[in-house]
Amino acid sequence: MKRITLVGLAMLAGLAAQQPTGKSVLDKILDLMNPVNARGIMRQTIETTSGQLRTFEYETFSGNKGENQLMRYRSPGRVRGNAMLMTDFSDNIWMYNRRTNRVRKLASHAKKQKFEGSDFTYEDMGSGDSWREDYSPKLSGTDKLNGEKCWLLELIPTKEDMSYSKMVIWSRSGDFFPLQIDYYDENQVFTKSLLLEDIREIEGILTPFKMTMKNHLENTQTVMEYVEVTYDVTFDKNFFSERNLKK
Fold it and tell me: Could you tell me the domains of the chain?
């Protein structure tokens, strides 16, 4: 029988310390993806199955690590002034139409629907920090993505009636920043992937200036790009409210 020396024990302890857990990787990812507050201008380009492009630009506000989000459209002219509010990580969604001057609340199941006909759902846009409660993380090994070593983190839902049966996050091994997220529907079918690119450091925070959601079943994609962004912003307690939608 081989003896384990003190040096051997120290080496094993060192290896164990280097190996993260699924929970620790998820915590790092969410801390990177969800800064406390943010304000920016984004451009969204939807490419349809026929190759046509639809482009929107809006001002976006995010508070309390993505729990609350408000978006106001700047262009094109037909939607300028329209706005959307999501609270409680997209559990509550309100839409404001400038032409009718009316606010309507969407049904609870609407979070699974496409956001403005894009390849993002409302839930994709507003899930934020809720993954900690809604999914169980499992580290399934490492692989390379575009030449970079990544941790593969599987997220399995802990609740019924979730939009996805599984998500797989490709997290950069050096700093844990997510480079890609793969989505599987309720039938375990691999449906779409989110690619996070053009990563820059803004005010000390890593920021993907380009996010592309590719729908593998419909052969469509939606690109969201930051025109500008800042994290040095605070909001008063009534900012993320139905009343503020009309401003």
Answer: 22-246 (2.50.20.10)
